[in-house]
Amino acid sequence: MGDISPFQFQVVAALIFMIGVVGVLIRRNMIVMFMCIELMLNAANLSLVAFSREIGDDQGQILAFMVMVVAAVEVAVGLAIIISLVRNRDTVNIEDASQMKW
Amino acid sequence: MKLAGLLTPQFWVFWIFSSAAVAGAAGVVGNVRNPINSALSLVVSMLALAGLYVLLEAQFVGLIQVMVYAGAIVVLFLFVIMLLNLRGSGASGAELQPLTKLVGTGLVVLGTLFLVRVLATGRAPWPDVDPSYGTTRAIGEALYSDYVLSVQVAGVLLLAGILAAVVLAKKKVD
């Protein structure tokens, strides 16, 4: 595969994962924080697929597929929670959803 | 790096798609004005990752990435953002002070350096795989023979997710 090493794919995955972590830490908009969680899941998927290609086995791809299933369910439930929060509080700022914080 | 390596199409595909993926990810976090811009950056990142999957000879995962992530999940995000009409609710703006920006960038750099340091050990060359590797047929046969229990559990999980989403988003909770 040209001059691309498996290591380079892992670096891209690490970069995207770190951007997702920082997004969850510094953004205060619930929907954007949720997108950052999706970014982290995607970075993990890229890492899985790259390792899978590196060892020449397709188990990593199956695990990536299962991660996508879980991500789809998580998005549906999480966005439903956000919708009901906005209906009750009229805000998507995470600081206003502090009922379970102590 | 040898000059011959610069001329392979894989090299250019890798650099174009990986920079698009990282730039899209940065766009999701850096867009403070409007969540819709964040969602569109997310589409760029997802499509670029699909390109990287195809480069890794995982055609099936790349296809599912385009259909599920870029096609369904981001559309769901866009629906919710437009449904809630977030422009006027004061949710955006006045987040991301300069100090948080600095701390965030530093965290990205340090974290990536740390991960690169950890990952740098034990690199191997690419093995040769047979032409059926990563095709829909190969993955489908594996899913419906060795991993059939996982498929069943995924189905139950999706059903539970549908029900939970309907119940949660239906009406006002007290």
3D structure, described in words:
The complex is a heterodimer of chains A (102) and B (174). Chain A is mostly helical. Chain A has three helices and no strands. Chain A has a domain at 29-90. Helices cover 76% and strands 0% of the residues of chain A. The longest helix of chain A is centred in the last third of the chain and has 31 residues, at 59-89. With 174 residues, chain B is mainly alpha-helical. Chain B has a domain at 6-87 and 132-170: NADH-ubiquinone/plastoquinone oxidoreductase chain 6, subunit NuoJ (Four Helix Bundle (Hemerythrin (Met), subunit A)), CATH 1.20.120.1200. Chain B is 72% helix and 0% strand. Chain B has helices at 3-6, 9-30, 35-55, 59-84, 98-119, 136-143, 148-170. In chain B, helix 2 (9-30) packs antiparallel against helix 3 and helix 3 runs antiparallel to helix 4. Chain B is globular. The N and C termini of chain B lie far apart (64 Å). The model of chain B has no long low-confidence stretch (mean pLDDT 83). Classes of the chains: A mainly alpha (102), B mainly alpha (174).
Summary?
The complex is a heterodimer of chains A (102) and B (174). By secondary structure, chain A is an all-alpha fold.
Proportion of residues in extended strands of chain A: under 5%
Which runs of chain B of at least 5 residues are low in confidence (pLDDT < 50)? Answer: none
- State the name of the first-level CATH class of the domain at 6-87 and 132-170 in chain B: Mainly Alpha
Overall CATH architecture of the domain at 6-87 and 132-170 in chain B: Up-down Bundle
Oligomer type? heterodimer
Could you tell me which chain pair has the largest interface and how many residues each side has?
A: A-B, 74 and 93 residues
Range of helix content of chain A? over 70%
Record field, number of beta strands of chain A: 0
Compute the number of helices of chain B: 7
Q: How many strands in all of chain B?
A: 0
Q: DSSP helix count of chain A?
A: 3
**Termini separation of chain B (Å)?**
64 Å
Amino- and carboxy-terminal Cα gap of chain A? 53 Å
- Tell me, rounded to a whole number, the average pLDDT of chain B: 83
| CATH topology (fold) name of the domain at 6-87 and 132-170 in chain B | Four Helix Bundle (Hemerythrin (Met), subunit A)
**Computed Rg of chain A:** 17 Å
